[in-house]
Structures are given as C-alpha cells and as structure tokens.
Amino acid sequence: MTEAWIRPLVEAIHSSPTQAVLYLSGGASQALGCLMSVPGATNTVLEAVVPYSRMSMIQLLGKIPTHYCSQQTAQEMALLAYNRALKLSSPGSPVLGVGFTGSLASTRPKLGDHRFLVFIGPNSRFYLSTRTSDRLWVSTVTLSKGLRNREQEDAISSHLLLKVCNIHMDLSIMSYVASKLALIAVSETFWKCFLHGNVWKAIANACKVQATFVSHLTESDVSDDCEERFTEDEELEQLINGQICFKGLRNREQEDAISSHLLLKAIANACKVQATFVSHLTESDVSDDCEERFTEDEELEQLINGQICFKVYPFSNVTHASKEERKIILSGSFNPLHEGHLKLLEVATSICGNGYPCFEISAVNADKPPLSVSQIKDRVKQFEKFGKTVIISNQPFFYKKAELFPGSSFVIGADTAARLINPKYYDGDYGKMIDILTGCKRTGCTFLVGGRNVDGVFKVLEDFNVPEMLKDMFISIPAELFRMDISSTEIRKSQGC
C-alpha cells in the first residue's frame, strides 16, 4: 500500500455499515490486499472469491459465458456476489456485490480485442460492476495499446496469421519470444527480416534471444538486413511526431494497481464514503461508467422473478440486533399480522437466548400465484407500524429457507410441524422426507414449535411422532408460555374478507 491516499479510503470503507462479497477475475488483486491489511476488514469483507480458471468461472456463473471478460459477465458476477452477501450479512446491514473481470498484460498468448493473438499488442481492458439493493453500476476501462500504432499492429497480426503455419521452430522459444514481444519496440531489422520470411529470427533478435535457426534461403535468394538504433531522445521525438503512440507499456503489476484503485473507488462509492481518490489513468486510457438505479417496485419484481433471493426491511428498533448472526424467523403470509404473531416471536426469542428476531414472507407460493408488488408492500407496512423487521424471500419451502438462512431458528406452529414430518407431503416417500429434513439439519437450522389448534384440537410438539434422528432439531414452546387461539384466517372471515 505505497500510496498515501489508499489507507484513508480503506479506513472510510471499513467504517461504513456496508458488507460486501467480491468476485474478482483477471486483475484487481491488490485491492484485496488493501482491504484485508487495514484493521476493520471484518466490518466490510464477508467473502472474496477469485474464479481465475475457466472451469471456476463456469461453476460460479452456472453456465459457459459468451465472453469471460465482458460487461455482461461482470454484471452477472456482481449480482451473484450481491445475493451471496444477502445470505452472509448481518440482518439489516446494507450489502454490496462486486464483480470484476479483466484482461491485463500477460506473459501467455490469448485472444484479444481484435481477434488475433494478444501478445501482438492488445488493449488491456477490464470491466467492473457493483450491485446494491437499488443500484447497478458498471465501468469499462480500456488501457492504451502501448508501443505500436494501428498500422504496425495490423501488419504484425496479418503477417503472423499468414506466416505462422509455414515456420518451423522450437515451441519453447516461440512461447518465450511471444511473451516478450509486447514489451519491446520493433526495430527496422524486424521488418526487413519479416519480408524475407525469417520472421522468428527477426522476433528473436528483437527480443535479444540466443537460439539456433535453420535458414531456408538458397544461394539465389537475396537477404539484405539493416538496423537502425534509436536513442531515448529520438524515441520521444517519434512519440511527439505521432510515429509511435505510446512509450512503455504498463506491466502487469502496474495495471493491477490501476484496476485495484478503481475497485476501491467503486466500493467507496457504493458504501457512500467520501474520500480522496487519485486516478492514474492517462488521456489515452478510456473509462466508461454507467449506472442504473432501481425503485422499490423494481427490486421486488426482481425478487419475484428470482434475480435476487430476498429483501430485508430492517424496521426493528433494537440497536444491538444487527450484530447477531443467527436469525430467529417466524414465516407466514401475515394476512393480516396480529398479536399472536408478535407474541409467538417474542417468546421464541426469549427461549433462544440470542439471535435477531424477524418475520419472513415468501412472495412465491407453492400452490398459489405469487404475491403482487402492491400486495407485498401492503403487508410490509404492517411491520413498519410495529417496528419489526421483515424479510421478503422467494422460497416457499422450509428446506430452501434453511439454505437461504443457515443456522437460523424457524418458529412454526404445531400444524406446520405436523406437515413437516408427514411423508404425504414428500410424495408419500418416508426416505425422501428424512433426506430433506436431514439436509435442513446440516445447515444448522432448528424448529421452535408453538401449540396450535389442529382439526379443532389444541396440540403441541409432544403430540407428534418425530423421527428419532430429527428430534434434536425440534424444540417445543411450552403452552404455559404461549397459547393464543387466533388465526389470520379467522380475522379475515370476521372482517368479511
């Protein structure tokens, strides 16, 4: 962390409440070092993943991307990181997903911007995207091509494509030469030799590589080599006159530093942090930023469509609650929310001893149409009135909720418990039921069961035959602590709904 402005920027990021997941590929690695080396990283970084190999990227995205280094890929990485951050964050904390994919200076041949080998002199380009609850921000940065103008680049690429199949040389030398070509100035010797077909000899000479070459020229062929060397002053004059477009390429470390600085700036912006930022981009570098903001309605539409996994409305007025990692969740439709719901969650929280109490509504129902945006917002208003946090998810099944909220305690009624341990709801397959509930158990989730009227009879957990291997996952709420014979259905009927 050599630059003085970086540390204050990172400290400001760590002091914000925003928690982030970062997915980075092909650059910006120094940003991770900056974030992790300044005290307070645990306040910001939930997880950082580097899907560097193609297979790693495919597994992250769940598909083969059209282009590994593209704006679309960066946006998809940011959305995945955002959903991951939702799952890992403290309840109620603002979260950030960061996606970065780049193609920076490399020592290995690869496909580049103009569809020829990048080691011939490509643009170094990277894409950076951040996603918060209401904003998608994307930046595309194309760094200067470096030493060669378009004409020279086009000539090299065209000639190599034509000549490479006819040249016989040691592949280890070719690989080494190729890795060096992007870092050297092409001398007059190169062009003279190129026209006579001694392309690899020319490249090797320019790279100052010592190697044995077999000439295929005959006595009747004429080879006339010449060389002109340039001083630094002459090279600078050529740059001023437009003969060359850039003096000196950035190396990988320098490009990584630039991408890391821009990544830190993006995180600071998403965290709404005011800090000094020093840009090292030149006039010939190209930076293209764009931003898309989402309304609450648009965010809820994304949730219903499965683009994001849940949205938290942190209405709770409990100041220390956000530090609790475990959630105590009472799921339901809450149509309407009533005193029984509030009391049940209060009692369950006292039994658990610690945890963040919240309600949860699934916008997607297993056997009914999904809730509309207006229906969701109407139900959310009930919780705002009572100062209670509510989560809107898109998972109607408890085994999916367990994956979404690992380590949580779900508060359920005896009627729901009866369905959970009834093979009828698992296609009549007892083994399938055990497998699914064992999967819930592996996530660290438990079920707190309150008494409830079932077919006109008040029942508690002890009235049901819970399989032995699952008994420690179910905890009974004593009837003397909670019993309230009221339901949302009865309230709706009494209101004529």
Automatic annotation (TrEMBL):
Residues 330-493 form the Cytidyltransferase-like domain. InterPro entries: CinA-like_C, Cyt_trans-like, Rossmann-like_a/b/a_fold. GO terms for cellular component: cytoplasm; nucleus. Signal peptide: none annotated. This is Cytidyltransferase-like domain-containing protein. GO terms for molecular function: ATP hydrolysis activity; nicotinamide-nucleotide adenylyltransferase activity. It comes from Jatropha curcas. It holds the Pfam family CTP_transf_like. The lineage of its organism: Eukaryota, Viridiplantae, Streptophyta, Embryophyta, Tracheophyta.
